[in-house]
Amino acid sequence: MGDNKKQEQYAGFTHALADPFDSQTSLVHSGFGSGGPATNDTPVAEEEIIDRTVESSVVRAIFQGDDLSRRGFMGLVGSSAALSIISSVFPLDAAKAWAKDAPGSLEKKELKIGFIPITCGTPIIMGDPMKFYEKHGLVGTKVVKAAGWAMIRDWAMNKEVDCAHMLSPMPLALTLGAGSTATPFLMPAVENVNGQAITLHIKHKNVKGPQDMKGFTFCVPFDYSMHNMLLRYYLAEGGVDPDKEVKIRVVPPPEMVANLKAGNVDGYLSPDPFNQRAVFEGAGFIFKLTKELWPGHPCCAFAASKEFATQMPNTFKAVFRSIIDATMFAHKPENRKDIAVAIAPRNYLNQPVEVVEQVLTGAYPDGLGNNHNEPDRIDFNPFPWQSMAVWILTQMKRWGYIKGDVDYRTIAEQVFLASECRDLMKEGGYPAPSETYTTHTIMGKSFDPSKPEEYLQSFAIRRT
């Protein structure tokens, strides 16, 4: 809407839009058209109109509509002092921000959201059968199953889906043009933390650590995955070069158990339920949970193109809220069994409820005759720490997936929408961190996100 049109539209509200902190103006008006022509002080820009409307409403409420009292007070203390006094007892700036951010009509309701059938995608998947999308007005939205991450990437880039379940390194890679044409993508929220494992073929029961894995063939779900980064990290910390002393193949998660049973691979670092499914099938055993490498590490995420978020801001925010609500619901252990029932069917995970429940509750057999009870085997927290993005970028550079100078902080803040996620978490009544960067500890080694290059150069085994 142009400024001239706005001025014409709001010309009848000059009293309502007069400066409420000015003792010389009157806020008394009798209705539309009573205010005469717009004055020089009358706001015409949309955001200024919202600000003035909020200010006027708050001041009117404080003085209970008594304009003479308001004008007397403003004349006594002055407009600046009055603004400070009122702001000290009422969150005026927050109210303005909320008004500007108030949800408008959804540009689109029936979305297609791509997903891979793994428990890491629980919030996105359960949003369909458990009606989290409908709660936020996205009636008719459906999740669409893909066979592998390359398919998800292509669907997202070709706009065959509106948004997608992605591995947390993928939006970074897409934005940088690593492995594909550079396309700006956003990662508004993490879906799960922990939830992966190194699973080995049952014949490798005597393996104790990386040195016993030399010559192994592993599979991971995608190059730009936490699985690949964590497997490489684990092997290298044990003195095994992941590019020279083992083979790492990309295999779609649904095909991993079959490859393990056939003896095509010795093991994999995989999302669940395929670690637990290998145990269920008697093909392998769970060697190590990834939470033992990095407690609370991110894995999968909700992602969308910057174009989608920009062109459909209300719809984007509705999906964002849906994902946060679903993620926080999944965070509660008492909800996990119901979730397992909801997402196990063929159109979602296509897994036995027993297997999905073992993953989500953390009460599981490991394939070696031991039963475990680890409630944090997988957890769900939407907050996308930008320090986690910096760590991912260091590992992408370490192994040669990106080259040259990397502006770690700028990329992290461009892609991982931590501040936006925090705002929506607070709006929903959920606790959220006040900071967007923190230190992390991976296999006993501290990572300071303010010193990424120093951290990168500290590794003996690297490609850079």
TrEMBL record:
Keywords: Cell inner membrane, Cell membrane, Membrane, Transport. It holds the Pfam family NMT1_2. Coiled coil: none annotated. InterPro entries: NrtA/CpmA_ABC-bd_dom. Its main location: membrane. CDD domains: PBP2_NrtA_CpmA_like (cd13553). GO terms for cellular component: endomembrane system. It is found in: Endomembrane system. This is ABC-type nitrate/sulfonate/bicarbonate transport system, periplasmic component. It comes from Desulfomonile tiedjei (strain ATCC 49306 / DSM 6799 / DCB-1).
